[in-house]
Amino acid sequence: MTDVRMPERLSAGDRVAVVAPAGPVREDRLKTGIEHLKAWGLEVEVLPSVLAGHERLNYLAADDKARAEDLRNAWLDPGFAAVFCARGGYGVQRMLEYVDFDELSAVPKWFIGFSDITALHEPLNARGLVTLHGPMAAAVEQLGTAVGRQRLYDLLFEPKSVTDLLAPAGARTVVDGVAEGPLRGGNLALLAASVGTPTYAPPAGVVVMEDISEDAYRVDRLLTQLLRSGWFTGVTGLVIGDFSGADDSGLVNAVMRDRLEPLGLPMVEGAAIGHEDMNLAVPLGLPVRLDATAGTLTALFS
User: Fold this and answer.
1) Residue 275 annotated among the catalytic residues of the structure
2) How far, in whole angstroms, is CA 191 from its chain's centroid?
3) CB-based contacts of 98, cutoff 8 Å, min separation 6
4) Which residue among 95, 105, 140, 221 is least packed, with the fewest CB closer than 10 Å?
5) Nearest to 42 by CA among 79, 5, 71
């Protein structure tokens, strides 16, 4: 098993960088989000490509190489204690060929994001680095929600103060049992899209899944792709987060159960992880203990 490496906790006065590996960023939302980070005593620097725009493709924050270069520069700069993604959207997969994950993972540093950012979490977690799946710098609704904002703060500044990663919202038991292993996963669509690519990193441990605007039949297709590829071979437990903006949330829940219950793995659903306003940050790559019967997910800090 790959050794787990956790970044040093943040302190007031630390400098942090904001990058945009995926979609375009609204300046007003970014400004509001940064105020929350500054309230923690952090000094925030926005990298050049965040607000640059793409010459032809308006669904990207900037050119692929420029976004990858800003990520590298922020990560390798010893003056930055953390790298926050501005937002998700789409675009990370386009820049993966320009990212040296061995180089980045050799420098433990807090990296925060979710949704499309799953494509960056996966290869970093596979190399043993703990990263944070949680609210991003321009996610003003999520940073504006006190419980979620406090969780993110705690994991960055006082990580060992966080015990049950599902509290206070909790989760519902689907399949009883207990599972342990590194926490992996993220956005379902991105997990499925990585299969067969150079950065493909099938998990071994407890998996969390979330998504947005994926109707029931598409969730079925994504899960079926993962099942047929053998993706779940090393998975020990399942944490199902929010599947926001679906056509029929009840049908989505039925699909999740239909496809995943037969695995017989300890499983909970309804975790407050995903695209809703309350998005509880979780440390991907960190060993955890899922007690599906009790509906708890315990962080196993060394």
Assistant:
1) yes
2) 11
3) 64, 65, 68, 69
4) 221
5) 79
pTM of this structure: 0.97
**Residue 2 confidence (pLDDT):** 75
116 φ/ψ angles, rounded to the nearest 5 degrees: -60, -20
Chunked in runs of 10, what are the mean pLDDT values of the chain (302 residues)? 90 98 98 98 98 97 98 98 98 98 97 98 98 98 98 97 96 98 98 96 96 97 98 98 95 98 98 98 98 98 86
Query: What length does the chain have?
Result: 302
**Annotated catalytic residue, options 105, 115, 269, 276:** 115
User: Catalytic one among 49, 121, 275, 276?
Assistant: 275
Please tell me the predicted confidence (pLDDT) of residue 280: 98
> What span, in angstroms and rounded, lies between the C-alpha atoms of 209 and 242?
8
- Cα–Cα distance measured from residue 46 to residue 264, given in angstroms and rounded to the nearest whole number: 45
210 is catalytic: yes
